[in-house]
Specification:
The chain is about 45% helix and about 10% strand.
């Protein structure tokens, strides 16, 4: 499921977040963290076509996403 599908699902369900476990009061934060990591890994691989396992999508914390690879 891509980002646009997650947003549409959240809107149609009236959620305040994109992930159902967060919406469920019994959501496990570790499980949510794993889902988030899996989502970004899939996004980097499928949408950005990053296939090198040593290259990652990195959030700078200011809303800017960068791609970082191995240092030579």
């Amino acid at each position: 499921m891509g980002l646009s599908e997650l947003v549409e699902q959240a809107k149609s369900n009236g959620w305040k977040t994109l992930w159902q476990p967060v919406e469920d009061k019994t959501g496990d934060t570790e499980a949510i963290s794993q889902q988030f990591s899996q989502f970004w890994a899939g996004f980097a691989r499928n949408d950005l076509k990053i296939t090198d396992p040593q290259t990652v999508l990195y959030s700078c914390g200011n809303g800017v996403m960068t791609v970082r690879g191995p240092r030579h």
